[in-house]
Amino acid sequence: MANELLGAAALLWAAAAIIALIGVGGIVARALLVAGGLAGIAAALVCLPKGTETLMLPTTLGEGPVLFRLSADALWLMGFGLAPAVLACALSTPSTRGEYGWLFGAAASLLGALGVFGLQDGASLLIAWEVMSFGGALMILSERLAAAAARSVLFMLGLLEVGAVALILAVVLMAVPTGSLSFGAFAGAAATQGAGWEIGIGILFLVGFGAKLGILPFYEWFPAAYGSGSGASGAIMSGVVLNAAFFGLARALVGWLPAATPGIGIVVVAVGTVSAVLTILYAFQQEDWRCLLSFSSAENASIAVATLGACIMFRADGQMRLAGLAWTVALIHLAGHALAKGALFLAADGVYRSTRSYAISHTHLLARSAWPFGLGALFAAMSLAAMPPQAGFVSEWYVFQTIFQGFHLSTLGDRLTLAIAGAGLALTAAVAFATFVKVFGIGLLGRTARDTRPMSVGITRSVALLGLCVIAFAAGMPVWLAGLDPAAGGLFGSHVPLDMRVGWVLVPGTGAPIAPDRSFAFISPSLLVIAMPLLSLLPILLLALSRRFAVRRAPVWYGGLPQDPERASTTALTFSNALRTFYAFIYRPTLTTTRETNGQPYFIRRLVFSHDVAPIFGPYLFSPLVRFVRLLAEKFSHLQSGHLNFYLALIGALLVLILALTLI
């Protein structure tokens, strides 16, 4: 049944790609994409927690057959990632100029992600990876929402190809000891190699998959690329595509390197933690919905990567239960993130359709739109800000509970690594809270006198549905955890997910199941969903009592001028300026003011104010590399002399070289 559903999903997406390529029947292509996504979600629901049977595809690649199988963790990440993708495909891009190209790119992204989740050999994985990257680039280019979209996409593809080269090297090095590209042989190959070889392979996989996850320095392509596309593209790329990249990394580091040393774990934790801190600091400064949410996606992926690094450290130290806990927590975190981030990306498209801008500014859209939209957006923002009782609160609570278990590790260096990581993730959580207060408070609650259209029915229902999924995921966590138990048992030899619950109460799951009152920490999002609305009755009662007394209202002093609430209110810049000043050594902010005059210095026509924050890796890593490549291109350009005799001489020299190598 499951393989039939997955086969139907692949065929439907392929049919949608063909229709989009022809350029006729956009509504049909959208319907096929949605139907394929629903089939994928149904397959995940049917097959969890066991996974699918191994399927031999009717094709060959090289000398062996192409096998396909979805494990429980693949189904978990794919199912939750497809939920926002289905709604994004149903709504499609708000751009009216490149819908067919966008539909083709969406189909390619979904097909590539399905391949990354399920294909079982290195060659087919690399092909699926490239198809997934190509689909994302095509979505952004087709929309033409930004003047510099081509440059942004080229930068994105350049960094992704760096990751692809790292993946090719890692797969080849894994295949050499056994002479096979099958993933089933990779674990055996790793067991015969030394610790240095494993660390090198692990770093290659971290670079390869991390290029799409947005770990440093690769996160610098996120704001330009996401900011050149729509929220629908962002919902797909930060959901199912991001989850596929993390699944590939987790499968490589946990499944293919079973005897990984703590050294690679320390590297992964350090890279993930630093990436999380930097990306959320830069997210806080953004004034575009898509750029801010893209940095936030990199931040959440980095948190999951840091937790995966803790899993590797615990396993190398023999702490299998703690390793299983960290692995489970990373999957929980990305599942909740996909739902919440998809809701806000679609809300960003709603802002654009209403105001023709993605700027985070006062729109008063919350008051002018239907209440289900506000409720869904609020739940999503609360989750990404890690506020109870949402999914983000549950997953980040579990992240800290996992990192704090570092005192169980046997060496001082390992314990210090997780202690410092805990401090970095705490800073990340604090800045993330402020970031989404800014998004929701200014971007949706802010009042304006401008005329803006309310959210469309499609956006309202989609955001509301995803917001309800966020809180349903949190409240039903004791039930959802069962979906990961067999996979955790197979990898770590213990049923940690089932030990993370006691009835409707969640516990860290570090030992045998115990009563909540004997655990040093426990929460129950299921009960909080019931208790928090009851607690809201108290302010409602106070509000009702206050109406019996006269309330004195006075206008705000506005410098003796007529009051302008919009100009006097907090903007995105002023909200984030304090943190920009405090962390100026990271941001290196720039402020410029230009005066435009009519030729007379005392008569100013207009003042132009601009501000920005400087990237870290751009001027110190990417720019020198670009200059080096251009220098090489200039030197090698002399080979294109246009003289036939010179080209014949080069061909002759190559023939002589080939003959010499053959004789040797």
**Helical coverage, percent range:** 55-70%
Report Rg: 26 Å
Distance between the termini: 57 Å
- The low-confidence parts are 512-518
Number of strands: 6
Within the largest sheet, what's the order of strands? 1-2
Estimate nothing, just give the exact number of structural domains: 4
**Number of helices, where a helix is a run of at least 4 consecutive DSSP H or I residues:** 28
In percent, how much strand structure appears in the residues? Answer: under 5%
* Main sheet: strands, sense, barrel: 2 strands, antiparallel
Rounded mean pLDDT is 89
Structural class: mainly alpha
Global shape: globular
Protein name: Hydrogenase 4 subunit B
Keywords: Cell membrane, Membrane, Oxidoreductase, Transmembrane, Transmembrane helix
Membrane topology: Multi-pass membrane protein
Organism: Ollibium composti
